[in-house]
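User: Good morning. I'm curious how adenosine-5'-triphosphate would be positioned relative to this chain. Could you predict the structure with it bound?
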Amino acid sequence: MLNYSSTQNAWGNISFYKKTKTLEGGVYVPNLDEIWDYLKEQFQTQFTRIGYQTWIDSAKPLSLTANTLTIEVPSQLHKEYWEKNILTKIVENLYAHFGVEVNPVLTVAGTGADTPQEPAAPTKTKRSNQVSEAEERDFLTNSHLNSKYTFETFVTGTGNQMAHAAALVVSEEPGVLYNPLFLYGGVGLGKTHLMQAIGHQLLSNKPDTKVKYVTSETFTNDLVNSIQTNTQERFRREYRSVDLLMVDDVQFFADKEATQEEFFHTFNDLYEDKKQIVLTSDRLPNEIPKLQDRLVSRFKWGLSVDITPPDLETRIAILRNKADAENLDIPDDTLSYIAGQIDSNVRELEGALIRVQAYATMKHAPIATSLAADALKSLKLNDATNGLSIVKIQETVAKYYHITVSEIKGKKRIKNIVVPRQIAMYLARELTDASLPKIGIEFGGKDHTTVIHAHEKISQSITDDQDLKNNVAELKNLLKR
Ligand SMILES: Nc1ncnc2c1ncn2[C@@H]1O[C@H](COP(=O)(O)OP(=O)(O)OP(=O)(O)O)[C@@H](O)[C@H]1O
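Assistant: Good morning! Here's the predicted structure, ligand included:
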């Protein structure tokens, strides 16, 4: 039986105590499934499709004990969103429908910590973000965004769920919560896609918004052109009058003093006007070499969130989406096979699917697993003739330094292992086409930023350490044989 006074703190601002039933003592006691089904039904009408998928589909009802409804959400960011926007709705919806008072409690997946939540202040009803197809076409053709990079076509999984949720929040409330939003991660993992999805969504919500997407190189080129043509005023007006500025791959700001200077002022102007800034990079701000401290600190003001390589399930879902979009008839086991072959880069994953498709056309055969295996085998053969395997590099470096391959791939931090490990990573980066996350995985599941660091460390050291330079040259020679 519920003791009302025990929930008095949590519900201090709600005045319907006398009318409520308790889950134990009331006339009708809905169970967990009924409650959840009802809530999902309600939320389907209260959220956009993407909003529903992001916030509701990703949550799991765990238990209903006494009047406590425990719900698991995937990340801290989801928890914050739920606290701000959803908890009150749950209380209101359940009270209105079942006449019961339920205390929702959130827990973040993987932490096991249950924290009772106070209901947040009621939020304004979100206006619908539906636009007509004509409007949609219009803004897509008028903008400089890739029409395919939307939230609808972005598949979420463990490696990108938090980045996706943050991106969605930014598109709903630009300039408010996460400013700047800094998305970072390895090559081909969807940073550009997610960033542009923010632009699309914002334009869809408010078609008159001024949205600008550029790569960091375009920013530099625009700046240089404006200096050459004496049109700096125009350049500044253009960059400082937008509602959303997205700059892709800001790691290329490294070493560009004039660009950094100009971007510093652009950033400040936009930030002060509460305009949203979204940045992407292959690494964290403080890991970008020769980036001015004042930019590093500004880039960290908002939220930095990483995207890691997708797990198998997500890779299969990405392929399924892609196959459906292209009207390709591919059996599930074939998609699983392809997803099993490419594990660290979504761009390569898509490339593999295209390759299988082309191979099927060439052979006049339907797409099946054996055909996919043939198509991807020849891909691997091509790779092998072009480059080296990471395994061979690890074996050669281990032998050269009289240590084992497992030490190279391990975590021991003693100098006579760390240096060969960094050399092996350096050589893997220099001599193979493997992506940074792929190299990280091959070195015992290390993060791609560790590979970046190793590469930078060795590149730097060989410029002033003649012995090291000779060793690396010798290793390169050994690997050529
Ligand atoms: N989760 C995803 N769902 C659907 N498509 C994805 C996903 N992640 C990546 N892609 C696709 O993979 C390709 C590469 O993504 P994108 O260009 O956004 O990567 P990136 O991280 O910006 O890479 P780079 O570091 O090279 O700039 C794109 O075609 C994109 O649509």
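The beta strands are 60-65, 68-73, 103-108, 114-116, 181-185, 211-215, 244-248, 276-281, 303-307. The two ends are 78 Å apart (CA to CA).
Let me know if you'd like a different ligand tried.
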